[in-house]
Specification:
By secondary structure, this protein is mainly beta. It is built from 1 helix and 9 strands, in the order αβββββββββ. The strands form 2 sheets. Strands 2, 4, 5, 6, 8 and 9 form a 6-stranded mixed β-sheet that branches. It has a 3-stranded antiparallel β-sheet with strand order 1-3-7, with no helix packed on it. It is globular, with a radius of gyration of 18 Å.
Length: 142
Amino acid sequence: MRTLSLSTLAALLALTTPVLAGETPAPPGAKVYFVNLKDGDTVNNPVHIQFGLAGMGVAPAGVEDKKNTGHHHLIIDEMVEGDELNAPLPADDHHKHFGGGQTETTIELTPGNHTLQLLLGDWSHIPHNPPVMSERITITVE
């Protein structure tokens, strides 16, 4: 019986293990958008935000057997770009996850200008390929 070194075994596993990053396809024309906000709006706290989605459906995080679905992420005062689009989105004050399939939220923001963007994530919080993201809007909170 022949044995494999650990490094050889690791290399073989890397070749046969599927890569999840950015591999969930998005259908052509899919888009996510803000229903009740637009660039330049002035709002008061608490800020109510409604998420719109066209060309795809909403499914909770962890549900991987539903084709053409995902769940919403709200990006606040940050940008997600480059390699970040190929990895699970972080969960922090700038990256809000709605893995329960929510399509709206109410949040408190400090007074002043804030940028908002919606980004759809697949069952494992990784953006689709191509990414389904809204335009980045700026709102003013009074």
